[in-house]
Amino acid sequence: MPIYNSFAVFLLLAISLVIASGFSLGAAMLVLGAVVLFRPNTRRARLERDDWLLMAVLAGYFGVHMVLNLAHQAPGREYDAPLRFLLAIPALLLLRAFPLQAAALWNGATVGAIGAGLLSLWQWLVLALERPGGSTNPIQYGNISALLAMLAACALARAIQLRQSLPWKLLHAAGVLLGLAACLLSGSRGSWLALPFCALVAGWLLLRAGQGRLMLKLATSALVTIALLALLPNSPLTARMRLAVTEADQYARSANADSSVGARLEMLRVGLQLAPQHLLLGWGKEGMMQAKAQMVRDGLASPSIQEHTHLHNEYVDALVKYGLPGLLTVTALFLVPLGLFATRLRRSANREVRLASAAGVMLMLSYLVFGLTQAFLTHNNGVMMLGFLIAILWSLSQQQPVGTANTA
Description:
The protein has 2 domains: 2-236 and 319-397, no CATH class; 244-316, no CATH class. Helices cover 72% and strands 0% of the residues. The chain contains 15 helices and no strands.
């Protein structure tokens, strides 16, 4: 089972973006593999309070959405995304009972980041796509590429700490660079915002480990790379940032919502108007769509927002559709795992545990930032990557006892 689990985790990350819905295969393997836990005399993990708290958050997200969807008489498809968090629980139990090999996670992330970067370069250079997105939306593609780059950076740090051979270090470094390239080429500005937060966590870790010189080298390399990308002719980085500033200025001056940023700001305004009217249970998805359409007909909102099924902000979208319970559950989904991972990071003396915990902190920070410009949890890949990465990283962070922190 440890080999089976390791292979499933490797696949989940390695083919997550290069094959349509590639993340589903590894996730399905983990869920199906959990059937062995029902066999008599099968080894089971001794769960701690934090395990139960994490599973309660995952189950609570599903439970609250199930009740509210029933209240709003939502169609069956609205139960699909929340159900994925419930499915992450048996995967977590399986991984706690039969721990995977840590290298499977880090190597899978590196392979996935390299694949995402190469596919993006192919679509950009050969197919001449302005915003490469693989087989999904460029926004989701950029977000997941940022996650893979972050995990590949952790893999590189691990390779340095373990004094692995130069080819392994170069492979992980390639994963970081190509994952970042995929993120930048996607034009997903929300994912770009998450990168500095992850960099701060990585810098803090290097300082704690006495690697201040290495941190300065990496920070300098990152700044030089960003500067070079910004100075490139027709750079997608500078073009997208200038466009964002222009569109925000147009909305502020004339309420022009016929643009990416303008539509987001208009949806934010409309959402904040709708939310107070149904704070207890929310409008539901269909109710929100009908309310937006009515505002458009009454001339109170721009027609550009009418067809959007979410408000491009995780928190406002949850508040409008599901009221205060929806906002509280999505906040708990992000903040509780963040707190648990941060506690493990602060208190653990084990190198592998600290690395997995740091990755968990960066994962949750990324989703907190993604949610500012995209309702990522309304998309299958956003839900699957979050739920199952929480399970995977938490199982790794629990494989060693917690003790006094050190700089190992």
